[in-house]
Amino acid sequence: HPAIEFHDVRFGYRRGEPAAMTQVLHGVSLSVPARGLTAVVGPSGAGKTTLFQLIERFYRVDGGRVLLGGRDVEGLPLETLRGLVGYVQQDSAAMRGTVRENLTYAQPHASEDDIREALEMAGLGAVVAGLPQGLETELGDQGSGLSGGQRQRLCIARTLLQKPAVMLLDEATSHLDSDSERDFRDVLRRVSRQCAVIAIAHRISTVIDAEKIVVLEDGRVRATGVHRDLMEND
Ligand code: ADP
Ligand code: ADP
């Protein structure tokens, strides 16, 4: 099975009293392979974040179906769903506590081997080993010795400890310099050999090595392809 399938998904947010509807997704169909990097690009307001929230079943679809590993998310116990879908929380600016605490607060029973492996996957093995107190180094507000890009990859390592089937990343590389962006892309490539990765990006250039790019505009899929195809059509 593909990791994720959307079949003709319709969705709108309800708000106000009497309830008004903001139609956001107008019949979206797409599929995300079980391995590899799938990018979702498109302008602000296109509905990209909403796709993620439907995968996580924060909201229910108004029409169509969302499948995870071939199973309708409606029928999955929430606990199962939460285990399968890893959302990379990008709170890299506001990290408190030690490296270890940041990695394991959602997975307090993670083994040392798993922690090491997650750090390696995120390209942080040597970085953390080089910190004054290794895993026990305080991240604090600033000055911990981790760059913005490294902190972002720490967020990925944290999600890896969950061993998700699908990893969701929002606005992945928007604030990174080109070196950090390259490191980040390397990490995504490695991670996407183990699970499906779906990354939201503002620009196609940040996801040039995606196996699949879905262009979403006004709640509709405008194009699907690899980077080269989409650039030719532009
Ligand atoms: P994107 O991630 O592509 O920027 P979103 O999925 O965040 O797009 O938003 C799509 C549309 O839905 C936008 O018009 C946005 O204003 C609206 N929207 C997002 N979240 C909510 C919400 N919780 N309530 C009402 N409208 C929302
Ligand atoms: P902003 O939209 O102002 O950047 P945040 O930085 O708090 O707000 O969150 C960024 C986006 O990520 C928001 O649209 C929010 O709805 C979304 N988001 C937060 N947590 C999750 C999650 N677990 N899964 C999917 N989307 C999430």
From TrEMBL:
All copies of domain ABC transporter, residue ranges: 4-234
Localization (cell): Cell membrane
Top-level taxon in the UniProt lineage: Bacteria
Family of this protein: Belongs to the ABC transporter superfamily. Lipid exporter (TC 3.A.1.106) family.
Name of this protein: ABC transporter ATP-binding protein
Complete-protein stretch covered: 350 to 583 of 645
